[in-house]
Amino acid sequence: MRHLFMSAAVIGLAASTSVMAQTTQRAGTEGVQAVEEVLVTAQRREESLKDVPATISAVTAEQLDAMGPVVSTGDLLRTVPGVRFNDLQSTNLSEVSIRGSGTQRATGADSGVGLFVNGAYVGSSTLGGRNFRHMDFFDLERVEVLEGPQGALYGRNAEYGVVNIVSAKPKFTDSGYVSATYTGQTEQTKVAAVVNQKLSDTVAVRLGAQAIGQGKGFFYNPNSGKYYDHTDGWIGRGQVRYRKGPLDIDFSVDAQDLNLPSFLNTYVLPAGVVAAIPLGLTQSKYEVGHEGKDGVHQQAQRAMILADYDLGWAKLTSTTMATHWISRQNYAAAIDLATLAKLQSQGQIGLYPFGQTSTVAKDRTLYQDLHIAGQGLGGNLDWLAGADYLLQHDLNGTDSATTPCTLRVGAGVCAGSPTQHLCYLPLATSAACPATFGNFGTSARAPLRNESVSAYGLLRYRVARFTFTGELRYSRDDKSASQTTVYLYTDTQAAAPAAYDFESDRLNYTFTAAYRLPVANEPLVYAKVGTGYRAGGVNARTSSPYAPNPFRPTYGNEDTTSVELGFKGNLARNIYLRLTGYSSQTEDAITSITDGCTAVNACQKAATTFNINGGNVHARGVSAAIDGRFGLAGGLLTASLNGARQQARFVSTPGDYSGLPLVGSSVAQIPKWTASSTLDYRRRITGDVVGFGNVSYQYQTGGVQDSVTAATPAIWLNDVEQVNLRAGVDVKKIQAAVFVQNLTDQSIALLQFQTSGQPLANRYSTPRTVGASITYRW
Q1: Per-residue pLDDT tens for 206-219?
Q2: Residue 399: CA atoms inside 13 Å, Cβ hemisphere, count?
Q3: Which of 188, 246, 416, 631 would be a feasible disulfide site paired with 183, CB 3.0-4.6 Å?
Q4: 3-state secondary structure of 4
Q5: Does position 23 have pLDDT exceeding 60, yes or no?
Q6: Res. 333 pLDDT band, cuts 50 70 90
Q7: In angstroms, rounded to a whole number, what is the distance separating the alpha carbons of residues 331 and 728?
Q8: 49 CB-near residues (< 8 Å, 6+ apart)
């Protein structure tokens, strides 16, 4: 299958859907049109994507609809070269990677990719703060992806790029749609409706809602009769737009209340690896029982005001956002009492079946951006000046339930709480639990306050065929955090309280030189150098004074400088090409290590994980993407292809800490190759009936899952190769379609756990799904 799609690329029948949006003709397909202009806000103002000298992709709502249902952030980005969504089943754990940023799970730090909605920052360092929420990609207009450092215009955490989701605004027409999607294998029904109404020449409203219900799933807990991958709930949005004269203002409120999938770690433990299970343990991929709770419950509310005022000589733009969200997640050991009984009947100790982890992540964010943009020198000079302010109050909480008694063969299993002791006898011959129980686990709470303020500007000067652009930003970050840890179900402190502060400022820049070639279609070549940073912070934890790796309460900013060369332009009226090469250097890369403590060394306690500036990284890569529109057999074929080759390696690490990545090792979660292609065909069948079909393909290979250290060998990422199909008909205002996701029914380990280089457990991808949808538009 891979060779089929790559061969199509060679002959130029494919192109990157993410590079350019194409005009689609719902009523007919006569006449091949040129690749259409797309307006983006990559440089904080609306301008043609073709004119921006940078690696920018725009994926429209129509393109996303053509490829099938949007289930996660990954569906928004699967056609963007060099961009990867690290899907770990749970929305709280998944995250976006661009170019050499990689993703290091559980660092507790901000992402190196800036997440924005309508130009407002929506990321955070809380659990789930590296991923978009479902309401973010409901009723969207397009997704913009800016690759490379974007620190000069977007600031903190735009170190490797920016993903900006642009929501559909109220339009001054009467329109709307109602759609229903059903997926057979999961029995999931998704119903959405959007109504856009023009109330007057100056006022328009847009109201939308989506409801999700699900009867089945793939990953099942027979003990509770529930599915780990269950989704249900609702999303709602209301907008009012006022436009009169120079003023255009849009006020929106939206919210969601959703139960979302958790994850299942399935044991693939061979014999002789874990002392408590010397005979090993292998479980089903899809059906594992345990005694605990599972699932993610995510609630969010947001209000935004987007305003433009045309002063005549310049345009003033304001973006205001206030948001509050809370995400609760439960997961437990993938073992139940019956499995423990079986293990103990074989003479194995087994694992504690009532282990439970419950997390809570809360975020309250206020964001304000105000900038003014204009022109001078007869239109040859563009300028922009602005400032933004971010205030976040976050909370990270974790409750970890552990056994209050030593787990032994032939002994009862302790559970319950300090006020209600429970004892389970896995075997008829099991002895009773001891009269005295120990601690039942710990409960930790870590509030965080983050305040960031920035001022920025842009100057762009055109002379003949040359364009020179300079961007500059000054940012200041202030963080404070504390943590309290008590024994579960009590107020007794399990560790001394900790409180830390972090302050830092940064000056980021970008300089670009571009040239319009004096040939047909005047393609653009450019050279760019820029910087960005990932904000440092605090480790709101405590550690033993005897720790082999001394604990550090704070860690500094991570800084990246990148050089990029690019080409973008039309090879013909209906073919658009983009080529990019880059090289970047990251200093003080933020990594996650432990303090080296164990129960048997001088610490006499479990290890504490914390963040540290763990060395310097060099990354480089190339990408290519091409879009085309062709007349074929009386219809219109929109073809796309993109591919990227990338790598990032640690070139140095501090010498005073152990457990850091090995020099020369790859940064985790960076596939060596990524590629995708899309073929979309439309043809009038008869009268008002237009048939369509879409094939999309996604591929990645190479890379390591986690950092390679002296004690942890490389765990190689599994290759991903997925094909999706969608086909149907448009009949006047009605569209009916069928779709297949993961046509080849590929099942891979998204996440592999190992111990001492031996397999321990896996987390698997979702198998093939088949479904249908129907949409009515007016």
Answers
A1: 999 999 999 999 99
A2: 13
A3: 188
A4: helix
A5: no
A6: confident
A7: 40
A8: 20, 37, 38, 39, 40, 42, 56, 58
